[in-house]
Amino acid sequence: MSLDRLLEKIAETQNPTVAGLDPKLDYVPEYIRHECFARYGNTLEAAAQALLLFNKGLIDALYDIVPAVKPQCAYYEMYGWQGMKALAETMEYAHQKGMFVITDGKRNDIGTTMEAYAAGHLGSIEINGQTIHPFPGDALTVNGYLGSDGINPLLKTCQAENKGVFVLVKTSNPSSGELQDRMMDGKTVYQVMGERCEAWGEALPGKYGYSGVGAVVGATYPKQLERLRGSLPHTFFLVPGYGAQGGGAWDVAGAFDRNGMGAVVNSSRGIMCAYQKEGCPETDFAGAARREALRMKADITGKIAPIRL
Amino acid sequence: MSLDRLLEKIAETQNPTVAGLDPKLDYVPEYIRHECFARYGNTLEAAAQALLLFNKGLIDALYDIVPAVKPQCAYYEMYGWQGMKALAETMEYAHQKGMFVITDGKRNDIGTTMEAYAAGHLGSIEINGQTIHPFPGDALTVNGYLGSDGINPLLKTCQAENKGVFVLVKTSNPSSGELQDRMMDGKTVYQVMGERCEAWGEALPGKYGYSGVGAVVGATYPKQLERLRGSLPHTFFLVPGYGAQGGGAWDVAGAFDRNGMGAVVNSSRGIMCAYQKEGCPETDFAGAARREALRMKADITGKIAPIRL
């Protein structure tokens, strides 16, 4: 009913980070792209195969030290249904390796339509008595602009399938304040959204104090992050914006509680493109990703309380 | 750079409505489902084929009288990548028949990630010099919670490809007011979002006074709809909530200007499931859809000014 399995994976790996899998084709080492184009031609299938091989290499290098992956739907949709097939296969592969999978889709709609997203991404569908999990995520990012009608259908699925969601609260981008920082009756929009997360989360209590309704709060707003940690005691944070977007370890430290819990920090490009930054041979992309993941782990765990459940 | 082609299709058909293609498997006539399961087994491929056959039948029955279709992504994602393949094929088929395609994805993200959604849904990608349009929509619904960083990447693609977007402003569901009706400095959140649409739309001016940045405003809030029509003179409205959600023709009349323009009203279940409501043989599902579309057209055009560009 919650994000407990994520917390357990974090405790097991002693690593409160998640590897974003946002594989633009440019990020994929040339030798992999070359191999796929040679085999499948200049097609979406070739692109999708390249993403999948890249992701599998990254997962192989990370699964024992990083608790979770976060594939970003946009980078798969961009390559059509073939890309979506690579998304599903990436998720299945990450599960085989024991990783927690956060689907970054920022989905939002109402009623039966939201139920359809919930079934597709967190639950299952029945085809003539056959149960199928189309995109088997453990948690899904969602956008709460439509209110409870957009969240309640997810809660039902999360209860039934032991899954969670992360609601956008204070995003990491420069213009997030255009709406999110505006005041309503003495509170910012993001505070109000955060309080909604606490309320929605009551339906999905967790063993370790955090509910199944988490919040997305950016590393690029460290003061807000720290204040939200204080005011949302049952809401686990997914923190984007570390690394490429400018957030450092001290910026995310305020997201954590005195048990080193309370948040998981994402890095996408930093890990995926570590081989480019390092300047190592591109065939060592997975090794570079692992080195960067370990560096990031040390960077963050050095600034928070020891991790324990 | 805009929604002009939608307005032209509305004028051509003299019909300001859009047929929502939200094909839950339960909506598909049994003889189609049976045929697909017999051929493909109890698989996602069978489900996806059933959706596609249903959609094609609906499009064949509607393309000369209805200007646009609006496939809802959730109902395709729900059936996995096979469902997404049916989505792309539905879009291509609707284009062959000359219909305008509004992809209802309510997508939202920032920067390069939003560019990926823009490329996948409104633009194109290059695979080794090959240009591919993965999901060839003419307009995409989007969620503006993240501010301009989430909208600007779309505007670039819309300019280059002559496409448009619809931003969620005041949604049709009962809980839309939880956030959208809250006051910020004397204005509701949805008014502020509407004004953002006017501002974003300046980058995509249209020939007929309406920009390429439209707004989603629900039929279930007729007073707000009418007031927004007055305050957002360059913003074209996509109006859900007619029919199944309780909105009637008088409720949507306020969305239109004195040229019978300014809005397109969606009906999904009303049209798709007309055969169930009518009680006609299910093999006549397309005929029933056409009859309902004509009834809806007469219902709405009877309450607005004559349509002219």
Given the helix and strand composition of chain A, which structural class is it?
alpha/beta
Main CATH class of chain A: Alpha Beta
Assembly state of the chains shown? homodimer
Largest sheet of chain A: 8 strands, parallel, barrel
Q: Which regions of chain A contain 5 or more consecutive residues with pLDDT less than 50?
A: none
Portion in helices of chain A? 40-55%
CATH superfamily of chain A: Aldolase class I
Major interchain interface with per-chain residue totals: A-B, 72 and 72 residues
| Helical run tally of chain A | 14
Mean pLDDT of chain A: 96
Strand content of chain A: 15-25%
Count of individual beta strands of chain A: 12
Biggest sheet strand order of chain A reads 1-2-3-6-7-10-11-12
Supply the CATH architecture of chain A. Answer: Alpha-Beta Barrel
How do the SSEs of chain A run, as a string of H and E? HEHHEHHEHEEEHEHEEHEHEHEHHH
- What general form of chain A does the structure show? globular
Number of domains of chain A: 1
State the end-to-end distance of chain A. 17 Å
Name its key features:
homodimer; 309 residues; alpha/beta; TIM Barrel; eight-stranded parallel β-barrel; two-stranded antiparallel ribbon; 14 helices; 12 strands
